[in-house]
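Revision sheet: structure tokens.
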Amino acid sequence: MLQQIERKYGSDALTRIQKWTKTIHNQENSKFEDILYNVNNFFNRIPYHSDLEHWNKTDYWATPIEMLGTNGGDCEDYVIAKYFSLRQLGVPDSKLRMMFVTALSVNQAHMVLAYYPEPNAIPLILDNINPRILPANKRRDLRPVYSFNGEGLWLAKAQGRGSKLGSSKHKLWDDLTARIERDF
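Predicted:
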């Protein structure tokens, strides 16, 4: 697989992917706060590029390999890479949500990763705009819209978990998970 990645994206991409693998491996015995920080920090170093400039599409959800391979992504790509990295480290799906929000300072759609330490806790927010991991109630710059994970879709309710709407069937999510299965 590494040879395919190098052929497709080049030797710099292979180095980034090997650093990702090493970062994941090095977290296995770390304190959980350090794991969140290190995963968040690792991906926040990747340059931001809009989907239109990076993929020539209005909306594209990249796999972690694609993001690292091309050395760029937008907010959804950061969230997806962090989500799958934390899942690989054993964080249950029930503790993670990819959350669509409105970034109030620019009145723009944005996506962040929410980590729920307990079922009814205020989530911690992992974000590429604000690299500090803060509880959602400290992120007054974000207004939640809805969130999802592999288990379902939730309508946002203030800074909490919200009301479950159903399954997480979403065309971009389905396409993304199919490509991830193909890549691994």
